[in-house]
Amino acid sequence: MNIPISKPNVGEEEIAAVSNVIRSGMIAQGPQVKAFEAQFAAYIGADHAIATNNGTTALHVAMMANGIGAGDEVIIPSFSFFATASAVIASGATPVFADIDPRSFNLDPAAAEAAITPNTKAIMPVHLYGLPADMVAFRALCEKHGLILLEDSAQSHGAKINGQGVGTFGTAGFSFYPTKNMTTSEGGMVTTNDARVAEKARMARNHGMSQQYLHESIGFNYRMTDIMAAIGLTQLAKLPAWTEQRNMNAVRYNEKLEGVITPALPENSTLDHVYHQYTVRVPEPCSRDAVVKAIQDKGVGVRVYYPLPIHRQPIFQELGGYDNLELPETEKATQQVFSLPIHPLLTEEEQDYVIAVVNEVMSSC
């Protein structure tokens, strides 16, 4: 078999929606974007949603709308996709990396608190792989130190904590890249419950305009098109069923995989995982890279997210100041994790094959 790690789930409904928009003549930011914003906000339980052209710009807009800029520090994990840090850089602020919790792979609240300095302006946890970060702890931490709470929600559409949707604890940025749980081809969304932040975000994504040709602040062309929004509206309607299928796939993996450390929700948790990725650890002394190659050689498209922490990326080594940073749990995770296909198009036969291959490879590890 040849089983990909992910597969965009786009069908005739999306094609028809795009065709209707093209025929309408309104293909830039218009009524479809407005409808998508309203429906996405309702889906996660936010008061406001502001659509952008990708997830990275959504994070940048979230920072601009909260006044984060030069001289500020934003605490983030290094175990994440590069956009978590590049959005901080784009705002003019400085990323400060803190270590992760080894079970959840998410930013550790205690490590984040230890990284606070007089220049700290915000903390931005990442809901990595679709598992919510400990936002109750982060909200309390930000209130204690007078900091802004941001959320990198790029991988967590529909995830919840105690029934509250991620993206509603602070100002959040979502991504609709094709490999995400839902897509608009590219695209992003800023969400917030703060009307003032929402208005600043709308201006930031549209050249700083409060009305046409009246520019009150610095902004950019980060607008989503109606073509993208039409896809998003169709995908959003399908997302609950897709999430249910991802969770069913995760249950089967949890029951049948052998030799790897499967993902686990924190004890006594009321977290709703949406399994953007199903990520396992290879226990010592097995070689993760050897395991991954052996599985890939049998046609299973496993992938490592992420093999090199952000603070060790060449550009951050060039920027300087990160050489002596010690993040032991982050370093360990980058050497041990890999992700299995869990997308909703995965058939039971394909999943059985994935399980058989992983168990066979791990039995000889």
CATH fold-level topology of the largest domain:
Aspartate Aminotransferase, domain 2
Task: Determine the strand fraction and express it as a percent band.
Answer: 5-15%
- Describe the largest sheet: 7 strands, mixed
Mean pLDDT: 96
How far apart the termini lie comes to 22 Å
Name the overall outline: globular
Q: Architecture of the largest domain, CATH level 2?
A: 3-Layer(aba) Sandwich
Number of helices: 12
Question: Strand order, biggest sheet?
Answer: 1-9-8-5-4-2-3
Overview of the structural elements:
The protein has about 375 residues and is α/β, with parallel strands linked by helices. The chain has 2 domains: about 10-235, Aspartate Aminotransferase, domain 2, CATH 3.40.640; about 240-365, Aspartate Aminotransferase, domain 1. The chain is about 40% helix and about 15% strand. The protein is built from 12 helices and 14 strands. It has helices at about 10-25, 30-45, 55-65, 85-90, 110-115, 135-145, 195-205, 225-255, 290-295, 315-320, 330-335, 350-365; strands at about 50, 75, 95-100, 120-125, 150, 160, 165, 170-175, 190, 210, 215, 270, 280, 335-340. It has a 7-stranded mixed β-sheet, with helices on both faces. Strands 7-6-12 form a 3-stranded antiparallel β-sheet, with no helix packed on it. Helix 3 packs across helix 4 (about 85-90) and helix 3 packs across helix 7 (about 195-205). It is globular and about 65 Å long. The model has no long low-confidence stretch (mean pLDDT about 95).
